[in-house]
Amino acid sequence: EIVSLVSGQPVRTIALPEGIGPIREIAWSPDRRWIAFTGASANQLWVIAAAGGPPSRVADGARTIRWSVRSDALYFLAGPVGTVELMRVSLDVRSGRAAGGAARVMSLLAADGFDVGRDDRLVHTQTTRGADLRTFILDGVGAVRRVAEEESLGEGNARVHEAALSPDGRWVAYGAARAAQRDIHVVAFRG
To answer: In this model, does residue 83 exceed pLDDT 60?
Structure first.
């Protein structure tokens, strides 16, 4: 259901087939035409039109889903903790269906969260205590990508989690925990 924050009443309900099961994660496309979600039981990645209709299964084994800025692809993490792969599946922007299979972008050692911004800038956090917050700028076209630039965004031994890029791609906000202190840090991308 899509619920009005003013009235608290549903504005729209998008019915899903029974076989999908419980929903784990939901993400709106930047162009607001599509909703991506994962099913909790098998980590299947689905896309459905925000206006309703049948969902399309676009990948399996997905968690931590993020849309490309152009709403033409979904990025997600796959694999067990410690050997995580960043994956990308291209989408047909007219139908919401996969335009080919999911492709490996890169391995992310111990990744537990990420975000993708303008110009394919990627920022990710790691499950390893005290690991740096890393940012990558990916080069290439379609599913074939390589790291063109990489840098650390933080220093010290705080536990970094849940990084997010600003819509203009110029800033990264991330949570940091050091002992009992919890903060949100905002840092600029270089250049």
So the answer is: yes
Q: pTM here?
A: 0.76
Q: From residue 189, how far is each of 56, 114, 158 by CA, in Å?
A: 35, 15, 20
Q: How far apart are CA 52 and CA 70, in angstroms?
A: 21
Cβ-based neighbours of 35, under 8 Å, separated by 6 or more: 14, 26, 27, 28, 29, 47, 48, 49, 50
What residues form DSSP beta bridges with 126? 111
Band (pLDDT 50/70/90 cuts) for residue 191 is: very low
Backbone dihedral angles phi then psi of residue 56, each to the nearest 5 degrees:
-115, 125
Q: Is 49 exposed, middle or buried (0-12, 13-18, 19+ CB in 10 A)?
A: middle
CA 122 to chain centre: 10
Location of structure tokens 């139908």: 95
Whole-number pLDDT of residue 6: 78
Q: Read off the amino acid at residue 24.
A: R
What are the CB-based long-range contacts (under 8 Å, 24+) for 17-25? 17/54, 17/55, 20/44, 20/46, 20/55, 24/63, 25/63, 25/64, 25/65
The pLDDT value given to residue 13: 77
